[in-house]
Design brief:
heterodimer, B: mainly alpha, Fumarate Reductase Cytochrome B subunit, 12 helices, 3 strands
Chain lengths: 196, 349
């Protein structure tokens, strides 16, 4: 079974935010929520780097560990999903996540959090695959259609890679060999541990 | 001849000493130099190391996406929060509360209730006015609601989900969250009022130390130590826990309760840890308070129900206060109020 991972090649990302737009359009995420974002480090300085980041679908996911209602589950592909019918919008997954992935539509008074929304690796949720109710709650389920997340497929510079972790790592390794320098499997150690 | 041999020997000794010195210093200096050069070479080969280390440690940049800390790529402190909350806080909290329950059970079995000496006299003294009783039960009932909903959110996944199932618990947890969030600020009002209005009863006195040394009259069946309106146990545990733990719980609770005033993730993490730890300690202390009030000390509950305590109870537990009340109004057989000692007494009571 494949182990799905994201990898953003910091030598290629040009901060076009195409992935952010692609995600927003494909999944029709709620107002104020962006499942993916691009962070620019050292903006405007020599050696500036841009990285696109979303839920990394961690191996030992901190969000799942702290959820009081146990609404997270990991698919056979290693994708971390959650059940919005169970979520109570407590905010704990946001406190725990190293990547700032979980977000909440403001739905109640005093900024009370609605049901959490995050990147699904374009794999929908616990509802029947590609059903209307699944699309409404979680957005597209491209994985069920045999496709990869749209953010990576749309990436103009092929900086953002998504798919089986071994394949992604192979592609990246070849790039590093060709261009020299050091590999920057950014966030992988945090998300997937030393073993990957 | 003798002198030339002596000179030669001296020269040889000097050469030997300098040789040893050179070898020793070189053995220290050479490896140091090699390591230093190597370190420089490594740094040159990886000039970006510091940059990426800063990123891993939560350096912020720029993001076109607006959101709480959207410009931070990675912040690993959540992992510490997770480990502390799921580990020591939840573990020690459960141990403390469980330990307190066991302790109270043991005490009630081994020691039994503290009975009123000589039974009830039938004559009563007013101890708590209607206002103060209302304040107490208002705060107490909200405390219980908050404790049940809060404990459900912390321990529900381990305790209630196996029993209720995911769906039913989710409904209950959503309800608990809303109740906890809205009852919290109302509870804070009670805490603040109690802290302000009952401060004068809880100031330390000389008799407190004697009360502590005598074991509070709870241990052993000897003569109850002298005591004013409040004893040292009430001052330290009941009022003290409100002052220290209560203030921590209230302040951190307000931080967590208003996502429309967004805070940094680390502020939420720290607030949540302090809120949990202080609340668990507070519940532990209040278990003792509830036991003593409801069952442990006969006659104590009267003061918070009718507001009147039996004279014999007052003489046994708060003799100095009783004397004071009696002196204030010695003519009346049934003394009906602590007079000036009670700031919250309503005019109709």
């Amino acid at each position: 079974m494949a182990r799905m991972k994201f990898l953003c090649d910091s030598e290629r990302c040009i901060e076009c935010n195409g992935c952010v737009v692609a995600c927003k359009n494909e999944n029709h995420v709620p107002w104020g929520v962006n499942r993916r974002r691009v962070v620019v480090l050292g903006d405007g300085e020599p050696g500036e780097k841009s990285i696109s980041v979303a839920c990394m679908h961690c191996t030992d996911a901190p969000c799942a560990a702290v959820c009081p209602v146990d609404c997270f589950y990991t698919t056979d592909d290693g994708i971390v999903l959650h059940d919005k019918d169970l979520c109570i919008g407590c905010g704990y997954c946001f406190y725990a996540c190293p990547f700032g992935a979980p977000q909440y539509p403001q739905q109640a008074a005093f900024g009370g959090r609605g049901k959490m929304d995050k990147c699904t690796f374009c794999a929908g949720g616990p509802e029947p695959d590609n059903s209307e109710v699944e699309y409404e709650k979680y957005g597209a389920n491209r994985i069920a259609e045999g496709k990869l997340p749209l953010c990576a497929e749309m990436c103009a510079t092929k900086a953002l890679l998504a798919g089986d972790g071994d394949v992604v790592a192979d592609i990246y390794r070849q790039r590093v060999l060709r261009r020299g320098g050091r590999p920057r499997t950014w966030g992988w150690q945090r998300a997937y541990g030393d073993k990957g | 001849m003798e002198t030339t041999i002596a000179v030669k020997r001296q020269v040889r000794r000097r050469v030997f000493v300098w040789g040893v010195f050179l070898v020793l210093s070189a053995s220290v200096a050479l490896p140091t130099a090699v390591t230093w050069v190597a370190a420089q070479a490594v740094q040159d080969a990886n000039p970006q190391a510091a940059f990426w280390r800063a990123v891993r440690e939560g350096a912020s940049g720029y993001s076109a996406v607006r959101g709480p800390q959207a410009n931070v790529l990675i912040d690993s402190r959540g992992e510490d929060w997770r480990n502390l909350r799921n580990g020591p806080v939840a573990g020690w909290g459960a141990a403390a509360m469980g330990g307190m329950v066991v302790l109270l059970l043991l005490y009630s079995v081994l020691h039994g209730r503290v009975r009123i000496e000589g039974g009830r006299s039938g004559r009563t003294v007013e101890r708590w006015s209607v206002f103060n009783r209302t304040l107490h039960w208002y705060t107490a009932s909200l405390f219980i609601v908050l404790a049940i909903t809060g404990l459900s959110l912390l321990y529900g996944r381990a305790v209630l989900i196996p029993w209720m199932g995911l769906e039913a618990f989710s409904v209950y947890a959503a309800f608990s969250k809303v109740v906890h969030n809205y009852v919290g600020p109302a509870f804070a009002v009670g805490v603040v009022l109690i802290l302000l209005l009952w401060l004068r009863f809880n100031l330390p006195e000389r008799t407190d130390w004697q009360w502590i040394k005598a074991g509070g009259g709870l241990l052993g069946k000897g003569r109850h130590p002298h005591c004013g309106f409040m004893n040292a146990g009430e001052k330290i545990f009941t009022y003290g826990s409100m002052l220290v733990l209560g203030v921590v719980v209230v302040v951190t609770g307000f931080v967590l309760d208003f996502p429309n005033v967004p805070q940094a993730r680390e502020t939420y993490q720290l607030s949540q840890l302090l809120h949990d730890a202080a609340a668990l300690a507070w519940i532990t202390v209040m278990l003792g308070h509830i036991y003593l009030g409801l069952w442990g000390v006969e006659g104590a509950l009267d003061g918070m129900i009718s507001g009147e305590v039996d004279e014999n109870w007052a003489r046994q537990h708060h003799d100095l206060w009783y004397e004071q009340v009696k002196q204030a109004d010695p003519t009346r057989e049934a003394i009906r109020g602590p007079g000036q000692t009670d700031p919250g007494r309503s005019p109709t009571a």
